[in-house]
Design brief:
heterodimer, A: 267 residues, alpha+beta, 15 strands, 38% strand, B: 543 residues, mainly alpha, four-stranded mixed beta sheet, two-stranded antiparallel ribbon, 22 helices
Chain lengths: 267, 543
């Protein structure tokens, strides 16, 4: 009997059918599991309660992955001012709350170690603490006092690289750069800025890049050419502490380049 | 007779599934244009040209008469609305002095697409039953019926399910007409109907031409079945001409406008693998990867087995219907539908709906593969249990394998609805997995229907309706919104004048969130509609 059974090996002929059965069974189970894999509002409420209990005014709250941002704002949006959501970057924030699902991390907390971490029904709540950047001057706050030549500049809440940014927007006439000069700007050890092209539809229809040059004390310190797919492009240059005239020159060879930038001087 | 009855039953089930499913599906932006145009086209035919051709069908492409798309499906939907809604109500009033049976306006317009989808299932079933057998045919038809995205598209008054049906009808008729019949008119008429449905039918002669050359070369007769080609060449354009009155006036210029519109079509925004694409050159693998993530995995696996089985049979010289080479024909049909997207210049914004005619080939391969695997398993089963009779073993194996594949596909399909454009298959990880991969969230503003109950609970006031703007009047007409929630208008002016605002989430629509934040002074929505946890529509309320 045992000898007869030992001769009955699983016939290889059945392998395709077995494979199909395994795949179909896995798909049937995985489909339902995936559909319920994202934390619901009850989980988000509990996670939000942790944030509210430890929240200090001025704390930055971020969500990951990016696609769950709307759900995060639904539960904690009252603690997120528009300018925080449309920040230049996260460097000026000393405390950051990150609420994430599915093991994602927000770019703002990259390389930071959490001071606390809680898991609530699939929502991970992490609090980060660090020494914030010391901002001497935010150029967006000084636009009203700046000298603008060759066109107009306005402070906008713009979409750049599919993200919100409060930034100084200029649309130069092709071949005629717009110059924005911030007189006697207090400088620290660095000037950090970002630039990009606003508005997805003009980026689609006109594919040419824009350009931004920074002059400090009459000397060109850096040049950036943000393209249509580059998003929010960072630039940083070392500066000598003190006051100096800083000029941003924005240009384009094509029309409808909505060049938007933000910059801070930091120590 | 029994086989034919099964085919018709599957077609009837398909029609019922589409009609039931579409009740929860919102109105696509383009549907509104097609419904309006369709009613005018139908009136024109019913009133023997009243109003004139130019006023009904004409104008520049992109205009309100929708002259950039041929008229067949629009005309059918207009006729369906007239007969199934307007006339039915009048008749019921006359007979019963009441209206006990009401087909709502929207459903009436969508009936032709659902019928054509059912026809596609029937034709797939018929072809497979003739070539491979009943089991293969049933599984192939079920695989086609249980395609989540195809079922969704079939429930819209659009051209995507209809072109799949009429493309396949042309393939089917071409194959049938290669039997040497004297008057193979069917293939020419089918292609003409496909041409009158959507411009992508222009890709079909590529597949049929290569196939014809292959079988003529094999037959060593350059004029082998030449009447089939003559039918395509003569009847195809003739049917298109006959059905499209706009071509009766200055046909060459209007054909040039029609094709030119699509050759130079604007590239809408489309998210694919984490990047927003709106200008060529697009990745060569868009059609392949999107198909792998939007067709149930069990169906794809069975299709792979089917291809392997087909290659094995071909190498043994056991290919079915060698003279007419149907497997080569089906393969070429798939290549003609998906192939152009490899070059990176074809618009990709509609994703799988642009290459839906490839799906019957995949489902046929799945049916053949599943049945082949099941029969081999049945043979193995008998080796283990010789007392089990062969027919029983085969039935059990076919039932288990085919049933498991159908169950997996049904689970995916049920999970996907009614927001199937947000859904991705288990390989992607469902809708959340698709979002993680950076795949397109949705298009056409369909999901807005899901927030109508939320809007309806709010006090009356103008609503910024975003991408649902074209459908808003329809939602009000259907009674899904109480009076007082009118559309506040477009973009910044519309947002400024609104009390409520909705934003339909696609990556390139993020700017609408920011416009609302700026106007309302808050980043906090009051409601976020989700499909399996993935945000698809946010509703903001002015503080």
């Amino acid at each position: 009997m045992l000898g007869a059974l030992s001769k009955r090996r699983p016939p290889i002929a059945a392998l395709p059918a077995v494979l199909l059965l395994v795949i179909a069974a896995w798909e049937t189970c995985a489909t339902r599991r995936d559909a319920g894999a994202v934390p619901d509002d009850v989980a988000w409420d509990r996670a939000a309660a942790i944030v509210r209990a430890g929240y200090h005014p001025g704390d930055l709250i971020v969500f990951a992955p990016q696609w769950v941002d709307a759900v995060g704002r639904l539960h904690l949006g009252d603690l997120i001012p528009i300018d925080m959501a449309a920040r230049m970057d996260a460097a000026r924030y000393g405390r950051i709350w990150e609420l994430s699902i599915r093991g994602a991390r927000a770019p703002d907390t990259a390389n930071l170690a959490p001071a606390s971490e809680d898991e609530v029904d699939g929502v991970t709540v992490r609090r980060f603490e660090r020494e914030p950047a010391h901002v001497l001057a935010d150029l967006r706050d000084r636009l009203a006092g700046a000298k603008v030549d060759g066109g107009a500049a306005s402070l906008e809440l713009a979409e750049v690289g599919f993200a919100p940014h409060r930034c100084i927007q200029v649309t130069p006439v092709p071949g005629r750069p717009v110059q924005i000069t911030f007189a006697q700007l207090p400088l620290g050890t660095s000037l950090v800025g970002y630039v990009g092209l606003a508005d997805v539809f003009t980026r689609r229809d006109i594919r040419a890049p824009g350009s931004l040059a920074v002059e400090i004390g009459g000397k060109t310190a850096t040049e950036v050419t943000p393209g249509v797919d580059d998003g929010w492009v960072r630039f940083e240059l070392p500066t000598q502490p003190g006051n100096a005239d800083v000029t941003f020159r924005l240009g384009a060879d094509a029309p409808q380049r909505l060049i938007c930038f933000a910059a801070e001087t930091r120590t | 007779v029994r086989t034919r009855a099964i085919g018709w039953a599957l077609a009837a089930i398909t029609f019922a599934c589409v009609i039931v499913n579409q009740r929860d599906v919102g109105i696509a932006r383009d549907e509104v244009v097609y419904m309006n145009a369709g009613s005018r086209y139908a009136d024109w035919w019913l009133h023997l040209g009243k109003g004139g051709i130019a006023a009904t069908f004409g104008g520049a492409p992109g205009g309100s008469n929708n002259s950039e798309h041929p008229p067949l499906v629009k005309t059918l939907s207009g006729l369906a609305h007239t007969v199934l809604h307007d006339d039915l109500l009048v008749m019921e009033q006359f007979v019963f002095h009441a209206t006990p049976f009401v087909i709502d306006d929207l459903t009436a317009y969508r009936v032709p697409s659902a019928l054509l989808h059912a026809l596609c299932v029937l034709l797939v079933f018929t072809m497979v039953a003739e070539l491979w057998g009943l089991a293969e045919a049933v599984i192939a038809a079920l695989c086609l019926l249980l395609l989540p995205r195809a079922l969704f598209h079939a429930g819209l008054d659009c051209f995507d399910a209809p072109i799949m049906a009429l493309w396949f009808a042309t393939v089917f008729a071409y194959w049938r007409c290669l039997d040497g019949r004297k008057f193979p008119w069917q293939v020419g008429v089918a292609w003409g109907l496909a041409l009158a449905t959507k411009h992508t039918a222009l890709l079909l002669p590529g597949a049929l031409g290569v196939h014809y050359i292959a079988i003529a070369w094999r037959a060593r007769a350059p004029l082998h079945r030449w009447r089939v080609i003559a039918s395509l060449a003569v009847l195809g354009p003739a049917v298109l001409f006959l059905l499209w009155p706009w071509l009766w006036l200055d046909p060459i210029a209007h054909v040039r406008d029609w094709i030119g519109f699509h050759l130079h079509h604007v590239h809408y925004n489309y998210e694919y693998l984490g990047r927003n694409w709106n200008a060529p050159r697009f990745p060569w693998h868009v059609a392949i990867v999107t198909t792998l993530l939007t067709v149930p995995i069990a169906t794809i696996a069975a299709a792979v087995v089917g291809v392997a089985a087909g290659i094995a049979r071909w190498r043994r010289g056991e290919a079915r219907d060698r003279e007419r080479a149907p497997v080569l024909l089906l393969a070429l049909s798939l290549v003609a539908s998906m192939g152009p997207f490899v070059f990176g210049t074809m618009p990709i914004f509609g994703a799988e709906k642009h290459w839906m005619p490839a799906l019957p080939t995949i489902c046929i391969a799945a049916g053949v593969g599943a049945a082949w695997a099941a029969r081999r398993a049945a043979a193995a089963l008998r080796e283990w249990w010789p007392r089990v009779e062969e027919p029983l073993a085969r039935r059990i194996a076919l039932g288990v394998v085919g049933g498991a594949i159908a169950l997996a596909a049904a689970t995916e399909t049920a999970t996907a609805q009614p927001y199937a454009l947000t859904w991705y298959n288990a390989l992607a990880g469902g809708a959340p997995g698709g979002a993680d991969l950076g795949m397109n969230r949705q298009f056409w503003g369909v999901a807005a229907r899901g927030v109508l109950p939320v809007i309806a609970r709010e006090p009356p006031g103008p609503v910024y309706t975003h991408d649902a703007s074209p459908a808003w009047g329809w939602y009000q007409h259907l009674g899904l919104l109480p009076p007082g929630h009118g559309d506040s208008g477009w973009e910044v002016a519309g947002i400024r004048g609104s009390k409520l605002a909705l934003v339909i989430h696609e990556r390139h629509f993020n700017r609408h969130d920011y416009l609302v934040w700026d106007a309302y002074g808050t980043v906090q929505p009051v409601f976020v509609l989700r499909a399996d946890g993935v945000p698809i529509v946010s509703v903001y309320k002015r503080p």
